Amino acid sequence: MIKEIFDIEPIQKNALLSLTSISFLSFLQLYLFKNEIFYKSPFEIIGISLSLTVCWSVLNIPPLLFFYNAETPENENETNVQIEYEKVIFIFGVLAIGWITLLTYISYELKLCFKDFIRLSILTSIVRTIFWLIFGTIKDHKKRKLKQK
What is the pTM of this model? Predict the structure, then answer.
């Protein structure tokens, strides 16, 4: 079993580690913000935790895509752009875990309920997406100006 884990491709290994970490953090979030759920059946707890994991993963994809587009090197040709999936998956995992941990800590310190925690998470994801979209647009605009000169 252990040998098979080391034989997995780096992309799959990074994705598996990211989703496992996010899943543990989702379970922690349920414990911190909605601990009355632990009186239900284990299948409901696991289901809600996995649902929260999927939601976290989906919430972190748009900011990551705009971040990756904004951070492409300036001297790269438009036709020669290749996405390095290993790098994207690794960055996705690190950023997702970092943001989830930060938002969980802030929400816990502010004593927010579960609904407010989810609202704060969605709002943060939207703000990050807009930030990287604007940053990428400004950077692209500057690139075009330099090419025109």
Answer: 0.75
